[in-house]
Design goal:
This protein is of the alpha+beta class. The chain folds into three domains: 126 residues, Alpha-Beta Plaits; 64 residues, Ribosomal protein L10, N-terminal fragment, domain II (Molybdopterin biosynthesis moea protein, domain 2), CATH 3.90.105.20; 82 residues, no CATH class. 52% of the residues lie in helices and 16% in strands. The chain contains eight helices and twelve strands. It has a five-stranded antiparallel sheet, with helices on one face. α1 packs across α3. The chain is flat, with a radius of gyration of 43 Å.
Length: 308
């Protein structure tokens, strides 16, 4: 078998690189979105899992920076050159026909929960929830006590009596907290592709700091819709979303007005009755006084007659 000479190897390497640059140039030319994502600290198993999920939706490449820069230069797109500064050592480049934000959302959805390591910064407050655990009495009692967690023993297992925040957002995770979280299978982190920037070749726009928070965005939209709906109902702006509430509001007002009129009538009738009673009482008094005067006159007449 003939061994390859040094000169043949030297020629083969550049050809391979040229082939990669050509492939990257073709993807830049033919795909709508070019997205740079960080894969720092991403385990190989999860990288493969995410790659499977994105199959048919995006092409993932991890080329040397020099090769992708050469491919960008070949595209002769000056706007695209801005993306070069976001290509680092632990980054992957994704090419897709999807919209930049749609692809970024897919990457966010494909993240997996990950265990905490000592020294990591907590992304949010980390709380141990109340309830039963699989921990048995022993060294775990000291660990829990050191973190200020109240416990009780039930049927040979440790129960947590009340929820307790063991690490605040932004704080470094201690060895004790990390050990306990692993025992309780608390996974406060998520690992996956982290979108850094994306370029839309169709619109010729560079997007930076892409952050997709579906749940947060949905909650924000719900809150905004609720406020807008309440205001629209208040000013009686009729639409398919408000008409039901406006009619309900009108019905309530009708009932309230009906009751008000009824109460007013009752009050008015009561006053009339009171006036009648007063009049009768006054008449009775007048009749009584008249009778008394008549009686007095009659008595005087009788007395005067008797005297005569």
């Amino acid at each position: 078998m003939k061994s390859k000479s040094k000169s043949n190897i030297e020629r083969e390497v550049p050809e391979r690189k040229i082939g990669m640059v050509d492939e990257l140039s073709g993807l830049i030319k033919n795909k709508r979105t070019i997205l740079i994502a960080s894969i720092k600290n991403l385990p190989a198993s999860q990288f493969q899992e995410i790659s499977k999920k994105l199959r048919g939706k995006a092409i993932i490449k991890i080329p040397k920076k020099s090769l992708i820069i050469r491919a960008i230069e070949n595209s002769k797109n000056e706007s695209l050159k801005e993306i070069e500064k976001y290509i680092e050592k632990s980054t992957a480049i994704l090419f897709s026909d999807m919209d930049s934000f749609e692809l970024a959302a897919k990457l966010t959805e494909s993240k997996s929960p990950a265990k905490a390591k000592t020294g990591q910064e907590a992304p949010e407050d980390i709380e141990v929830q109340e309830g039963p655990t699989d921990l048995v009495p022993g060294p775990a009692i000291s660990e829990l006590g050191a973190l200020g967690i109240q416990i009780q023993i039930d049927k040979g297992k440790i129960n947590i009596k009340a929820p307790k925040v063991i690490v605040r957002k932004g704080e470094k995770i201690s060895e004790n907290a990390s050990s306990l979280m692993n025992k309780l299978d608390i996974r406060p982190f998520s690992v996956g592709f982290v979108p850094l920037s994306a370029f839309d070749t169709k619109e010729n726009i560079l997007y930076l700091g892409i952050k997709i928070d579906k749940e947060g965005t949905l909650n924000s939209l719900k809150e905004s819709f609720g406020k807008a709906l309440a205001f629209a109902v208040k000013i009686c702006h009729a639409s398919k979303d408000t008409i039901h509430f406006i009619l309900g509001k009108a019905a309530m007002h009708e009932k309230a007005l009906e009751k008000l009129i009824k109460d007013d009538k009752q009050e008015s009738t009561g006053q009339k009755n009171d006036n009648k009673e007063d009049k009768l009482e006054n008449n009775e008094k007048m009749d009584k006084q008249t009778t008394e005067i008549d009686n007095q006159n009659q008595t005087q007449e009788l007395n005067s007659k008797g005297g005569n």
